[in-house]
Amino acid sequence: MLAMAGDGTDAAFVDEVEPTVTISEYMDGIEAEELEADLVLGGDDGNECTYGAGYLKRQAVFSCLTCVPDGVAGVCTACCLACHDGHEVVELWTKRNFRCDCGNSKFGGHLCKLSPEKDPENPANSYNQNFKGSYCTCSRPYPDPEAKEQVEMIQCCICEDWFHEDHIGLDSLEKIPRDEEGEPLYEEFICHQCSPVCYFLKLYPDTIWASSKQSSASEAVTADSNGMEGGSSGHADTEKNENGAPVDRQSIENTSVEENCTKDIAASDKSILGDNSGGNCKIGVDINTTSADSEKTMPFFMSKGWRETLCKCGTCTNFYAQRGIAHLTDKEDSIEEYEKIAKQKREKKLEQQEGAEANFINSLNHVQKIEILSGINDMKNEFQSFMESFDPSKPVTSDDVKSIFENLARKKQRLS
Ligand SMILES: [Zn+2]
Ligand SMILES: [Zn+2]
Ligand SMILES: [Zn+2]
Ligand SMILES: [Zn+2]
Ligand SMILES: [Zn+2]
Ligand SMILES: [Zn+2]
To answer: In percent, how much of the chain has pLDDT > 70?
Structure first.
Protein backbone atom coordinates (compact mmCIF):
# COMPACT_ATOMS: atom_id res chain seq x y z
CA MET A 1 0.00 0.00 0.00
CA LEU A 2 1.42 3.34 -0.97
CA ALA A 3 0.45 6.49 0.89
CA MET A 4 -0.40 9.52 -1.12
CA ALA A 5 1.22 12.44 0.65
CA GLY A 6 -0.05 16.00 0.45
CA ASP A 7 1.98 17.37 -2.44
CA GLY A 8 3.87 16.09 -5.42
CA THR A 9 7.35 16.33 -3.93
CA ASP A 10 6.39 14.19 -0.93
CA ALA A 11 4.78 11.61 -3.14
CA ALA A 12 7.91 11.35 -5.23
CA PHE A 13 9.98 11.03 -2.09
CA VAL A 14 7.68 8.34 -0.70
CA ASP A 15 7.92 6.41 -3.93
CA GLU A 16 11.67 6.15 -3.70
CA VAL A 17 11.96 5.03 -0.11
CA GLU A 18 9.72 2.15 0.99
CA PRO A 19 6.01 1.47 0.91
CA THR A 20 4.58 3.51 3.75
CA VAL A 21 1.20 4.19 5.28
CA THR A 22 -0.18 6.84 7.58
CA ILE A 23 -1.05 5.70 11.10
CA SER A 24 -4.79 5.84 10.50
CA GLU A 25 -4.42 3.92 7.25
CA TYR A 26 -2.33 1.38 9.11
CA MET A 27 -4.94 0.94 11.85
CA ASP A 28 -7.80 0.78 9.30
CA GLY A 29 -5.82 -1.79 7.36
CA ILE A 30 -5.39 -3.99 10.42
CA GLU A 31 -9.11 -3.67 11.24
CA ALA A 32 -10.10 -4.63 7.71
CA GLU A 33 -7.69 -7.55 7.57
CA GLU A 34 -8.88 -8.85 10.94
CA LEU A 35 -12.52 -8.57 9.87
CA GLU A 36 -11.80 -10.28 6.56
CA ALA A 37 -9.94 -13.10 8.31
CA ASP A 38 -12.69 -13.50 10.91
CA LEU A 39 -15.34 -13.67 8.17
CA VAL A 40 -13.54 -16.43 6.28
CA LEU A 41 -12.75 -18.36 9.44
CA GLY A 42 -16.37 -18.03 10.53
CA GLY A 43 -15.37 -17.04 14.05
CA ASP A 44 -13.29 -20.20 14.45
CA ASP A 45 -10.30 -19.21 16.59
CA GLY A 46 -8.11 -21.77 14.84
CA ASN A 47 -6.86 -23.53 17.99
CA GLU A 48 -8.46 -26.94 17.63
CA CYS A 49 -8.75 -29.33 14.72
CA THR A 50 -12.39 -29.40 13.61
CA TYR A 51 -12.28 -33.16 12.82
CA GLY A 52 -14.08 -34.04 16.06
CA ALA A 53 -17.04 -31.88 15.06
CA GLY A 54 -17.55 -34.02 11.93
CA TYR A 55 -18.62 -32.62 8.58
CA LEU A 56 -19.12 -28.92 9.23
CA LYS A 57 -21.80 -27.14 7.24
CA ARG A 58 -19.22 -24.58 6.24
CA GLN A 59 -15.64 -23.87 7.25
CA ALA A 60 -12.39 -22.41 5.96
CA VAL A 61 -10.46 -25.17 4.15
CA PHE A 62 -6.83 -25.30 3.02
CA SER A 63 -5.07 -27.75 0.72
CA CYS A 64 -1.41 -28.62 1.36
CA LEU A 65 0.38 -29.33 -1.92
CA THR A 66 3.59 -30.22 -0.07
CA CYS A 67 1.88 -33.14 1.70
CA VAL A 68 -0.77 -34.04 -0.92
CA PRO A 69 0.42 -32.72 -4.33
CA ASP A 70 -2.56 -34.08 -6.31
CA GLY A 71 -4.95 -32.01 -4.19
CA VAL A 72 -7.30 -34.71 -2.94
CA ALA A 73 -7.24 -33.62 0.71
CA GLY A 74 -8.13 -30.57 2.75
CA VAL A 75 -7.26 -29.39 6.25
CA CYS A 76 -8.90 -27.05 8.77
CA THR A 77 -7.54 -23.68 9.90
CA ALA A 78 -5.91 -24.98 13.09
CA CYS A 79 -4.16 -27.79 11.18
CA CYS A 80 -3.03 -25.38 8.48
CA LEU A 81 -1.29 -23.35 11.18
CA ALA A 82 -0.05 -26.16 13.43
CA CYS A 83 0.72 -29.03 11.04
CA HIS A 84 1.54 -27.36 7.69
CA ASP A 85 3.53 -24.32 8.67
CA GLY A 86 6.02 -23.51 5.91
CA HIS A 87 4.34 -25.88 3.43
CA GLU A 88 2.87 -24.85 0.10
CA VAL A 89 -0.72 -24.26 1.11
CA VAL A 90 -3.67 -23.27 -1.12
CA GLU A 91 -6.27 -21.16 0.64
CA LEU A 92 -9.70 -22.31 -0.50
CA TRP A 93 -11.85 -19.75 1.33
CA THR A 94 -14.86 -21.71 2.64
CA LYS A 95 -16.27 -25.09 1.59
CA ARG A 96 -19.49 -26.76 2.66
CA ASN A 97 -19.90 -30.19 4.21
CA PHE A 98 -16.21 -30.84 4.82
CA ARG A 99 -14.27 -32.80 7.44
CA CYS A 100 -10.57 -32.21 8.13
CA ASP A 101 -8.26 -34.76 6.43
CA CYS A 102 -5.03 -33.71 8.16
CA GLY A 103 -2.77 -36.71 8.77
CA ASN A 104 -5.16 -39.34 7.36
CA SER A 105 -4.23 -42.01 4.79
CA LYS A 106 -3.77 -39.37 2.10
CA PHE A 107 -0.90 -37.72 3.95
CA GLY A 108 1.64 -40.49 3.51
CA GLY A 109 2.68 -40.73 7.14
CA HIS A 110 2.66 -37.01 7.94
CA LEU A 111 0.80 -37.05 11.26
CA CYS A 112 -1.65 -34.47 12.56
CA LYS A 113 -0.29 -32.77 15.66
CA LEU A 114 -3.72 -31.74 16.92
CA SER A 115 -6.05 -34.67 16.22
CA PRO A 116 -3.97 -37.71 15.17
CA GLU A 117 -6.82 -40.23 15.59
CA LYS A 118 -8.64 -40.04 12.27
CA ASP A 119 -10.36 -42.53 9.96
CA PRO A 120 -8.25 -43.25 6.85
CA GLU A 121 -10.61 -41.19 4.68
CA ASN A 122 -13.62 -38.89 4.90
CA PRO A 123 -15.90 -40.45 2.27
CA ALA A 124 -18.36 -37.55 2.11
CA ASN A 125 -15.71 -34.94 1.34
CA SER A 126 -15.61 -33.75 -2.25
CA TYR A 127 -12.55 -32.22 -3.86
CA ASN A 128 -12.79 -30.02 -6.91
CA GLN A 129 -9.90 -28.58 -8.92
CA ASN A 130 -9.55 -25.74 -6.38
CA PHE A 131 -7.72 -28.20 -4.10
CA LYS A 132 -4.98 -28.36 -6.73
CA GLY A 133 -4.90 -24.58 -6.92
CA SER A 134 -6.85 -24.32 -10.21
CA TYR A 135 -9.98 -22.30 -10.75
CA CYS A 136 -12.62 -21.58 -13.41
CA THR A 137 -13.30 -23.28 -16.73
CA CYS A 138 -9.80 -22.15 -17.77
CA SER A 139 -8.23 -24.00 -14.78
CA ARG A 140 -5.82 -21.19 -13.98
CA PRO A 141 -4.22 -20.54 -10.58
CA TYR A 142 -5.18 -17.52 -8.47
CA PRO A 143 -3.38 -15.18 -8.40
CA ASP A 144 -2.42 -15.99 -11.98
CA PRO A 145 1.27 -15.26 -12.60
CA GLU A 146 0.60 -14.91 -16.34
CA ALA A 147 -2.31 -12.49 -16.08
CA LYS A 148 -1.69 -8.79 -16.74
CA GLU A 149 -3.98 -7.84 -13.87
CA GLN A 150 -5.69 -9.94 -11.21
CA VAL A 151 -9.44 -9.72 -11.70
CA GLU A 152 -11.86 -10.77 -9.02
CA MET A 153 -13.54 -14.11 -9.52
CA ILE A 154 -17.09 -15.10 -8.59
CA GLN A 155 -18.03 -18.27 -6.75
CA CYS A 156 -20.80 -20.60 -7.88
CA CYS A 157 -23.08 -21.48 -4.96
CA ILE A 158 -23.58 -25.02 -6.31
CA CYS A 159 -20.12 -26.35 -7.29
CA GLU A 160 -18.24 -23.72 -5.20
CA ASP A 161 -15.64 -23.28 -7.95
CA TRP A 162 -14.55 -19.71 -8.79
CA PHE A 163 -14.94 -18.14 -12.23
CA HIS A 164 -13.63 -15.28 -14.31
CA GLU A 165 -16.57 -13.18 -15.46
CA ASP A 166 -15.61 -13.66 -19.09
CA HIS A 167 -15.52 -17.45 -18.76
CA ILE A 168 -19.11 -18.15 -17.70
CA GLY A 169 -20.67 -18.58 -21.12
CA LEU A 170 -22.04 -15.05 -21.54
CA ASP A 171 -21.71 -13.30 -24.88
CA SER A 172 -21.63 -9.92 -23.11
CA LEU A 173 -20.46 -8.92 -19.63
CA GLU A 174 -23.31 -6.37 -19.69
CA LYS A 175 -25.60 -9.27 -18.79
CA ILE A 176 -24.09 -9.49 -15.30
CA PRO A 177 -26.42 -7.53 -13.00
CA ARG A 178 -24.36 -4.65 -11.64
CA ASP A 179 -25.04 -1.13 -10.46
CA GLU A 180 -23.47 1.97 -11.97
CA GLU A 181 -20.36 1.60 -9.81
CA GLY A 182 -19.94 -1.96 -11.03
CA GLU A 183 -20.97 -3.49 -7.69
CA PRO A 184 -22.85 -6.79 -8.05
CA LEU A 185 -26.63 -6.58 -7.74
CA TYR A 186 -27.00 -10.33 -7.33
CA GLU A 187 -26.74 -12.22 -4.08
CA GLU A 188 -25.63 -15.53 -5.52
CA PHE A 189 -24.32 -16.91 -8.76
CA ILE A 190 -24.93 -20.33 -10.36
CA CYS A 191 -22.37 -21.12 -13.06
CA HIS A 192 -23.35 -22.24 -16.56
CA GLN A 193 -22.15 -25.77 -15.75
CA CYS A 194 -24.49 -26.01 -12.74
CA SER A 195 -27.48 -24.11 -14.12
CA PRO A 196 -28.93 -27.17 -15.96
CA VAL A 197 -29.21 -28.91 -12.55
CA CYS A 198 -31.15 -25.89 -11.31
CA TYR A 199 -33.32 -25.48 -14.38
CA PHE A 200 -36.45 -25.91 -12.26
CA LEU A 201 -35.80 -22.36 -11.02
CA LYS A 202 -37.34 -21.17 -14.30
CA LEU A 203 -40.71 -22.23 -12.82
CA TYR A 204 -40.40 -19.58 -10.10
CA PRO A 205 -41.50 -15.94 -10.39
CA ASP A 206 -39.13 -13.35 -11.82
CA THR A 207 -38.37 -11.95 -8.37
CA ILE A 208 -35.85 -14.72 -7.70
CA TRP A 209 -33.64 -13.42 -10.54
CA ALA A 210 -31.30 -10.52 -9.99
CA SER A 211 -31.76 -7.78 -12.53
CA SER A 212 -29.64 -4.70 -13.06
CA LYS A 213 -32.37 -2.87 -14.96
CA GLN A 214 -34.92 -2.85 -12.17
CA SER A 215 -32.47 -1.99 -9.45
CA SER A 216 -30.89 0.95 -11.22
CA ALA A 217 -34.35 2.25 -11.96
CA SER A 218 -35.41 1.99 -8.33
CA GLU A 219 -32.25 3.83 -7.31
CA ALA A 220 -33.07 6.64 -9.69
CA VAL A 221 -36.61 6.77 -8.32
CA THR A 222 -35.31 6.99 -4.74
CA ALA A 223 -32.96 9.80 -5.72
CA ASP A 224 -35.89 11.63 -7.27
CA SER A 225 -38.24 11.21 -4.36
CA ASN A 226 -35.85 12.70 -1.82
CA GLY A 227 -35.60 15.69 -4.11
CA MET A 228 -31.95 16.34 -3.33
CA GLU A 229 -30.25 15.08 -6.43
CA GLY A 230 -30.48 17.47 -9.30
CA GLY A 231 -34.13 18.34 -8.65
CA SER A 232 -35.97 19.18 -11.84
CA SER A 233 -32.86 20.43 -13.64
CA GLY A 234 -31.26 18.36 -16.36
CA HIS A 235 -28.27 17.64 -14.13
CA ALA A 236 -29.44 14.30 -12.74
CA ASP A 237 -30.33 13.10 -16.21
CA THR A 238 -26.79 13.48 -17.50
CA GLU A 239 -25.35 12.04 -14.31
CA LYS A 240 -27.14 8.76 -14.78
CA ASN A 241 -25.38 8.25 -18.07
CA GLU A 242 -21.99 7.45 -16.60
CA ASN A 243 -22.06 3.79 -17.51
CA GLY A 244 -22.79 4.68 -21.09
CA ALA A 245 -26.33 3.36 -21.04
CA PRO A 246 -28.84 5.82 -22.37
CA VAL A 247 -31.05 6.46 -19.36
CA ASP A 248 -33.57 9.24 -19.70
CA ARG A 249 -36.23 10.30 -17.27
CA GLN A 250 -39.04 9.00 -19.44
CA SER A 251 -37.65 5.47 -19.51
CA ILE A 252 -36.96 5.55 -15.76
CA GLU A 253 -40.58 6.46 -15.16
CA ASN A 254 -41.73 3.67 -17.44
CA THR A 255 -39.48 1.16 -15.73
CA SER A 256 -40.58 2.24 -12.30
CA VAL A 257 -44.20 1.64 -13.22
CA GLU A 258 -43.23 -1.80 -14.46
CA GLU A 259 -41.27 -2.33 -11.32
CA ASN A 260 -44.24 -1.45 -9.14
CA CYS A 261 -46.30 -4.01 -11.03
CA THR A 262 -43.61 -6.60 -10.45
CA LYS A 263 -43.59 -5.69 -6.78
CA ASP A 264 -47.32 -6.27 -6.49
CA ILE A 265 -46.98 -9.62 -8.19
CA ALA A 266 -44.10 -10.39 -5.90
CA ALA A 267 -46.22 -9.62 -2.84
CA SER A 268 -48.97 -11.98 -3.96
CA ASP A 269 -46.36 -14.57 -4.92
CA LYS A 270 -44.97 -14.36 -1.42
CA SER A 271 -48.36 -15.16 0.09
CA ILE A 272 -48.73 -18.15 -2.23
CA LEU A 273 -45.10 -19.08 -1.72
CA GLY A 274 -45.14 -18.95 2.07
CA ASP A 275 -43.52 -21.72 4.07
CA ASN A 276 -45.08 -24.95 2.93
CA SER A 277 -42.83 -27.61 4.40
CA GLY A 278 -44.83 -30.80 4.18
CA GLY A 279 -47.72 -29.10 2.40
CA ASN A 280 -48.70 -28.63 -1.22
CA CYS A 281 -46.11 -27.96 -3.87
CA LYS A 282 -45.58 -24.26 -4.57
CA ILE A 283 -44.67 -24.65 -8.20
CA GLY A 284 -47.76 -26.54 -9.28
CA VAL A 285 -46.04 -28.85 -11.78
CA ASP A 286 -43.95 -31.91 -11.05
CA ILE A 287 -40.41 -30.65 -10.57
CA ASN A 288 -39.09 -33.94 -11.99
CA THR A 289 -40.47 -33.10 -15.42
CA THR A 290 -38.32 -29.99 -15.79
CA SER A 291 -35.26 -30.22 -17.98
CA ALA A 292 -32.87 -27.74 -19.46
CA ASP A 293 -33.18 -26.50 -23.02
CA SER A 294 -30.78 -28.16 -25.39
CA GLU A 295 -29.49 -24.72 -26.36
CA LYS A 296 -26.38 -23.15 -24.84
CA THR A 297 -26.63 -23.03 -21.05
CA MET A 298 -26.48 -19.68 -19.27
CA PRO A 299 -25.30 -18.80 -15.79
CA PHE A 300 -27.96 -17.71 -13.26
CA PHE A 301 -27.78 -14.59 -11.12
CA MET A 302 -30.04 -14.82 -8.10
CA SER A 303 -31.71 -12.01 -6.16
CA LYS A 304 -31.46 -11.41 -2.42
CA GLY A 305 -33.40 -13.95 -0.36
CA TRP A 306 -34.15 -16.21 -3.35
CA ARG A 307 -33.41 -19.38 -1.38
CA GLU A 308 -36.24 -18.62 1.04
CA THR A 309 -38.81 -18.88 -1.75
CA LEU A 310 -37.79 -22.44 -2.71
CA CYS A 311 -40.52 -25.03 -2.25
CA LYS A 312 -39.97 -27.48 0.57
CA CYS A 313 -42.70 -30.00 -0.29
CA GLY A 314 -41.84 -33.70 -0.24
CA THR A 315 -41.45 -34.04 -4.01
CA CYS A 316 -39.21 -30.98 -4.33
CA THR A 317 -37.14 -31.94 -1.27
CA ASN A 318 -36.50 -35.39 -2.75
CA PHE A 319 -35.57 -33.78 -6.04
CA TYR A 320 -33.00 -31.49 -4.32
CA ALA A 321 -31.48 -34.46 -2.48
CA GLN A 322 -31.19 -36.55 -5.67
CA ARG A 323 -29.51 -33.69 -7.51
CA GLY A 324 -27.11 -32.97 -4.62
CA ILE A 325 -28.46 -29.48 -4.01
CA ALA A 326 -30.30 -30.01 -0.72
CA HIS A 327 -28.09 -27.35 0.85
CA LEU A 328 -30.08 -24.67 -0.99
CA THR A 329 -32.95 -24.95 1.47
CA ASP A 330 -30.62 -24.91 4.49
CA LYS A 331 -30.43 -21.32 5.70
CA GLU A 332 -27.10 -21.91 7.40
CA ASP A 333 -25.47 -22.97 4.14
CA SER A 334 -25.32 -19.55 2.51
CA ILE A 335 -22.14 -17.47 2.71
CA GLU A 336 -24.33 -14.61 3.87
CA GLU A 337 -25.50 -16.58 6.92
CA TYR A 338 -21.98 -17.89 7.59
CA GLU A 339 -20.61 -14.35 7.62
CA LYS A 340 -23.48 -13.14 9.80
CA ILE A 341 -22.65 -15.77 12.42
CA ALA A 342 -18.93 -14.93 12.06
CA LYS A 343 -19.68 -11.25 12.71
CA GLN A 344 -21.67 -12.10 15.83
CA LYS A 345 -18.83 -14.30 17.13
CA ARG A 346 -16.34 -11.54 16.35
CA GLU A 347 -18.32 -8.95 18.30
CA LYS A 348 -18.57 -11.34 21.24
CA LYS A 349 -14.81 -11.99 21.05
CA LEU A 350 -14.03 -8.26 21.02
CA GLU A 351 -16.34 -7.73 24.00
CA GLN A 352 -14.67 -10.56 25.87
CA GLN A 353 -11.24 -9.11 25.10
CA GLU A 354 -12.29 -5.77 26.51
CA GLY A 355 -13.76 -7.51 29.55
CA ALA A 356 -10.59 -9.54 30.04
CA GLU A 357 -8.45 -6.42 29.96
CA ALA A 358 -10.66 -4.75 32.55
CA ASN A 359 -10.66 -7.88 34.74
CA PHE A 360 -6.91 -8.13 34.45
CA ILE A 361 -6.44 -4.54 35.62
CA ASN A 362 -8.91 -5.10 38.49
CA SER A 363 -7.12 -8.25 39.67
CA LEU A 364 -3.82 -6.43 40.14
CA ASN A 365 -2.70 -4.94 43.41
CA HIS A 366 -2.22 -1.23 43.73
CA VAL A 367 1.52 -1.13 42.90
CA GLN A 368 1.09 -3.34 39.83
CA LYS A 369 -1.76 -1.15 38.65
CA ILE A 370 0.33 2.00 38.95
CA GLU A 371 3.18 0.36 37.05
CA ILE A 372 0.95 -0.74 34.21
CA LEU A 373 -0.87 2.54 34.03
CA SER A 374 2.42 4.44 34.02
CA GLY A 375 3.59 2.12 31.24
CA ILE A 376 0.47 2.99 29.28
CA ASN A 377 1.11 6.63 30.07
CA ASP A 378 4.71 6.40 28.84
CA MET A 379 3.41 4.89 25.63
CA LYS A 380 0.84 7.65 25.30
CA ASN A 381 3.41 10.37 25.96
CA GLU A 382 5.86 8.89 23.52
CA PHE A 383 3.16 8.62 20.93
CA GLN A 384 1.97 12.15 21.66
CA SER A 385 5.44 13.67 21.28
CA PHE A 386 5.90 11.66 18.12
CA MET A 387 2.65 12.99 16.73
CA GLU A 388 3.56 16.55 17.70
CA SER A 389 6.93 16.32 16.01
CA PHE A 390 5.32 14.87 12.96
CA ASP A 391 3.03 16.17 10.27
CA PRO A 392 0.03 13.82 10.61
CA SER A 393 -0.65 13.92 6.89
CA LYS A 394 2.81 12.53 6.25
CA PRO A 395 3.29 8.80 5.96
CA VAL A 396 4.83 6.88 8.84
CA THR A 397 7.66 4.53 8.02
CA SER A 398 8.42 1.38 9.92
CA ASP A 399 11.55 3.18 11.16
CA ASP A 400 9.34 5.80 12.82
CA VAL A 401 7.37 3.11 14.61
CA LYS A 402 10.59 1.42 15.66
CA SER A 403 11.93 4.66 17.08
CA ILE A 404 8.82 5.09 19.28
CA PHE A 405 9.45 1.70 20.83
CA GLU A 406 13.20 2.31 21.12
CA ASN A 407 12.56 5.55 22.98
CA LEU A 408 10.19 3.70 25.31
CA ALA A 409 12.77 0.97 25.93
CA ARG A 410 15.39 3.58 26.72
CA LYS A 411 13.04 5.20 29.25
CA LYS A 412 12.42 1.81 30.87
CA GLN A 413 16.17 1.25 31.19
CA ARG A 414 16.64 4.67 32.77
CA LEU A 415 13.92 3.90 35.30
CA SER A 416 15.14 0.49 36.33
ZN1 LIG B 1 -7.75 -30.31 11.32
ZN1 LIG C 1 1.56 -30.08 4.63
ZN1 LIG D 1 -3.42 -31.42 11.74
ZN1 LIG E 1 -11.26 -18.45 -16.32
ZN1 LIG F 1 -21.11 -24.30 -10.59
ZN1 LIG G 1 -42.67 -28.51 -4.33
So the answer is: 62
Which among 227, 267, 108, 239 is positioned nearest to 181, based on CA atoms? 239
The closest ligand to the CA of 169 turns out to be 4
Q: Give residue 158 CA to ligand 5 midpoint distance, Å.
A: 5
Element (H, E) at 321: helix 314-323
Region 357-366 average pLDDT: 66
Q: CA-to-CA distance for 262 and 207, rounded, in angstroms? A: 8
What protein residues have CB closer than 5 angstroms to ion ligand 1? 49, 76, 79, 100, 102
Q: Taking 90 as the threshold, does the pLDDT of residue 272 lie above it?
A: no
Band of residue 362 on the pLDDT scale cut at 50, 70, 90: low
Measured in Å, residue 266 CA sits from the centre of ligand 6 at 18
Question: pLDDT tens across 14-29, in order?
Answer: 444 555 556 667 667 6
Q: How confident is the model at residue 400 (pLDDT cuts 50, 70, 90)?
A: confident
Query: With pLDDT > 90 as the criterion, what percentage of the chain qualifies?
Result: 40
What is the DSSP code (8-state) at residue 147? -
Enumerate residues 6+ apart whose C-beta is below 8 A from 142: 133, 135, 150, 153, 162
> Looking at the predicted structure, is the pLDDT value of residue 267 above 50?
no
Query: What's the rounded Cα separation, in Å, for the pair 154 and 192?
Result: 12
Instruction: Output the CA 200–ligand 3 centroid distance in Å.
Output: 41
Q: 191 CA distance to ligand 1 centroid (A)? A: 30
**Of 373, 376, 375, 351, which Cα lies nearest the Cα of 362?**
373
Element at 8 (helix H, strand E): helix 8-16
Q: What's the pLDDT at 327?
A: 94
- C-alpha pair distances (Å), 289 with each of 238, 298, 301, 315, 316: 49, 20, 23, 11, 11
Angle at 165 between CA 160 and CA 166, to 5 degrees: 125
| Distance (Å) from CA 342 to ligand 2 centroid | 27
Select the more confidently predicted residue: 106 or 255. Answer: 106
Q: Give pTM, 2 decimals.
A: 0.63
- 121, 106 contact by CB (below 8 A): yes
Give the DSSP H or E segment for 371: helix 366-388
Ligand number nearest CA of 157 is: 5
